[in-house]
Amino acid sequence: MTDVVEAGQPRPPHSVADFADAARAVIPPGAWDFVSGGSGAELSMAANRRAFDNLYVAPRMLRDVSHVSTATRLVGTETSLPVAIAPMAYHGLVHPHSEAATARAAKTAGVPFTAAMLSGTPVERIAESGADLWFQLYWLRDRGATAELVSRAEAAGCQALMLTVDVPRLGRRLKDHRNGFALPPDVYAAHFRGEAATGAQRGSGAGSAVATHTTEMFDPSLAWGDIEWLRARTRLPLVVKGILTREDAVRAVRSGVDALVVSNHGGRQLDGAVPALTVLPEIRDAVGDTVELLVDGGIRSGTDVLKALARGADGVLLGRPVLYGLAVGGESGVEAVLSLLREELETDLALSGCRTVGEAAHLKTYESNASSSTGTASW
Fold first, then answer.
1. Where in the numbering of this chain does the FMN hydroxy acid dehydrogenase domain appear (predicted)?
2. Is the separation of the CB atoms in 75 and 157 below 8 Å?
3. Which residues are catalytic?
4. Does residue 373 lie in a domain region?
5. How confident is the model over 31-48, as pLDDT tens digits?
6. Is residue 365 in a domain?
7. Max intra-chain CA distance, the chain
8. Domain CATH code at residue 189
9. Domain-embedded: residue 32
10. Which of the residues 56, 100, 231, 302 has the least number of beta carbons within 10 Å of its own beta carbon?
């Protein structure tokens, strides 16, 4: 925690909100807006937090919680927490040690790290961290380039592929457009060459260079047949990220995927999209135990992780808080965020009468603005 304190925080942070406050003080304003902002009026981003804030858990008592474990297994990977680090582009915007530092922290914490396709560090170098790696893909107009990235991920030892399907085009992130946001010269898409690597640096001051770059690269014709092509192309577990309806979840299962990420992209795509936590129970009901379900969007504490588990998730993807920790203290800052989450979750499991992550699925939950409840009381 020494690095965290030296970055300007007079005392060690005690919550993700503390890390966010400290990060905002050190991240350049344009990069802060890129990392922390959402699309449109940021309605969905705010709704993600409200969904967690408005959900309450009914704890069980007299359960002998003298021994509590936060360990579990996600998409075939043994992990110390029901948490994986979400795919996020360009960690170098917040710290010069970039994705390599985040991956080393994930290794120390014992959680999977998802290497983003738009990473500023190539997957081969990230793999040197020794972390359990997953690799995230967007669907590219150049299918050969997509196939090449799959081969590189496999060769680097990645243990799963995660295809993000909710970006046929980038959502209108107004802060980035108003800022004329472009990547600085030392940050680029390291998995590509030439203009494909540096396109998001070519800002004109009018609009988002990142949005222009992704429009040029991403293929909006992505459809279910492409999922089946990718399924046949790799033996790695296949995760589809960006599902919000039971119909799409069922279709994804039929396409042979191994896990789904219920997600509205952290409120960064369709503004007005339903929070993932809200639809999680109906998606769990639709797919049963045939696939693993992960969820993301608005998770800021171990209590949020507990609520996600109680709503039907097998685990969560953690996004912005990781970048806040990276900005504040580099590798040790990310370690501190993950350690904080572990401490919170372990405490909350005990307080809710759960000795394991799996037992949290039996907790009843209540929405503050509704009379309905979810969960079972089968103990």
1. 8-370
2. no
3. 265
4. no
5. 999 999 999 999 999 999
6. no
7. 63
8. 3.20.20.70
9. yes
10. 56
**Residue tagged 């069922």 (tokens):** 250
Residue 261 phi, psi dihedral angles, 5° rounding:
-110, 110
pTM score > 0.85 for this model?
yes
The parent domain of residue 319 ranges over 2-222+230-355
The token pair that represents 277 in the structure block: 């936590």
- pLDDT tens sequence across 146-205: 999 999 999 999 999 999 999 999 999 999 999 999 999 999 999 999 999 999 998 766
With respect to residue 370, please indicate whether it lies within any of the assigned structural domains. no
Please state the domain count of the chain. Answer: 1
DSSP β-ladder status, 72-74 and 77-79? antiparallel
Q: Indicate if the pLDDT at residue 10 is higher than 70.
A: no
